Amino acid sequence: MIASGLNWQQFLRRWQDEWIPGTDEAEDLEEGGLTLSDLALAAPPATEEEIVAAEERLGTRLPPSYRDFLEASNGWRVGAPVSIYQLGAVHEIDWFGDPSGMGEICRRALTDRSTEQEVLLAGMWDRALRLETDSDMSHALLDPGDTDEDGEWALYLYQGWSGELPERYPSFRAYMEHTYREFHADRAGIPGFVNDTTRALDADVERARREALGGRWETARKLLAEAWRYGRPSAHGLLRQIETLSHRGGGLGFGDLVADPRYTDDLVPAMATAHLARHRHGDFPDRPALGAETGEAVRAAADAIFARVHDRSYRYAPGGAFGRAVDEARDAARWGDTDGAWRVIRAALPSWSPPGPDLLAPLGLLADPVLGPVVTPERGRELLATPRAGRPGALPEPVPDLDPPGLRWLADTPRFNTPYDSYRCLWAEGVEPEALPSLIGEDGSAGLTAPPGRRDPWTHRGPRPRDESAPWEDRAVLSVGRTGTGWAFGFDTAPRTSPVGNFFVSPAAAASRDGRAVVLWARRARTGGLSVFHLSVARHGEELYAFTLRGTDVTRSGQVPGTLDPERLLDGVGEEAHEQRLLAAVEAEFGLALPRLALAEGILPELTTRSWNRAPRQGEAYAYVTVHVGPRTRPRPHTTG
Hints:
The protein has helices spanning 8-18, 23-31, 48-58, 64-72, 102-108, 116-127, 172-187, 196-213, 217-229, 233-246, 264-277, 296-310, 320-333, 338-348, 377-385, 409-412, 436-440, 508-511, 566-569, 578-590, 596-601, and strands at 76-77, 84-87, 94-95, 129-130, 132-135, 138-147, 153-159, 167-169, 422-429, 475-482, 487-492, 516-524, 530-539, 542-550, 553-558, 606-611, 622-626, 636-640. It is α+β, with helices and mostly antiparallel strands. The strands form 4 sheets. The chain has an 8-stranded antiparallel β-sheet with strand order 15-14-13-12-9-11-10-16. A hairpin with a 2-residue loop joins strand 14 and strand 15 (553-558). The radius of gyration is 34 Å and the shape is elongated. The model is unreliable at 416-420 and 456-463 (pLDDT under 50).
């Protein structure tokens, strides 16, 4: 709301005309300690002679915007809420002189890696021009050593009581514009504070609503950001919605909108998700503040929502056609098809209708434990760019699918920042994911368990504690889903034991009740290449063939097809490409895939399988080592046979 070519007389006159007393000033006026004339902001203009005399006294020409200001008002009573109370007249300004030795403190902190701005700040204290004559332990300092191409000097606002470094403004004009906005923000909630500036800003907020629903979210964001800098109350909640979906921040508060029960089901879940993300590794935190105006009914609803978001039982359930699309998308995403889920949501977005004028988008999606991870930053911006609530507008270019096709991405994706890792997976043809527990689940299995939630980093669960099972047993914990070609799959991202030993029994045969089943197990060496790659294939309960590759040695059973034979596939191929070449062959042979995003975000339910190792037979021995970390401990061998 400030013109690019600033007319100081008009700007300062508007500021003076809009001025009303702040809370403290109103009390002083009421008690008779001040009069309105005492609180006048402006002073008569300085003459050219007065300005030139000051420049001769100081030995320098003053910067342009400060000089222009003096020609309009020789000083300025800033007033609340800022810590600079009075900018002095031109004959009162003087060199600062650094009475507290701040420059020396800053210079001692400089290193070879200090930035140009840190060097400028260290020198500012000795050369700065002090402008204020009354303040709360604060200084407004113009620095002649920090200038721009227009000859402007940077202004540093130093609040001595804060313990923080000064805040830098590129010019005196920038500082005064900022102070004007602070004046507006401080008085925005006072009844009767209405003027041409507030009316224009509120009109911009209304325009921003229309722009946002029409998909022009970046225009809306700029309008709302400017209105919020002036403290317009309605701008805050709207801006935070855009920031939350565009992943520019936000989510922890939406201003007074949270108190409106029409928006509880969207705003409170988004707040809970952002709040819990900041306490991911701690106990369940207190809920974020809802605001003093929030009624008991909304508070009770918020408590219930926070609890459901925390235990991952929350489900976003809007009504109408969009709600039906959300249900369809959730069913796709819960088995791994996050790209398909997003396509369903994207197609339904134009049908979304807000429960009130101040909700700009379906933010409740972000808190749904299955659909929230689907709304990535790219998709959040696509959502914002899609016209909604019956608004006209062009559809944005669709965000490309995020899951890479097939299996080869497994060879390209680093896992938990180590040069070696392991994964194993199983696919069963002709069955639904819910059927896997009956095929390969551990004895007494209760079926699939709830998704574990996001892992950080993406596939690392950490070492699994040894359970009460026999030491030779190796029960996989599989993330379970469905491929686009109709295979149920299970993927284990952190196998506990070394793969494919003498006691290994592939679960492929057990999983192949209704068709084929494929088991794959890969482990990388510390050098980065493959140390082990196993593949086994079964049909209708019988294993057809299998091979295990260790380095360059291959063991086989059954008739391995030429399209999968590792010796043929890897002939002349460098070690670094072995894993990708083998994965590509399995992918092509069976049309298999795995959903990277769903695995990374912990969307998929889990299944604990029967052991992938058999029990030792008569005369066989099985050994393992348990290492206890602590003083004077040593590995203890255990043998069974």
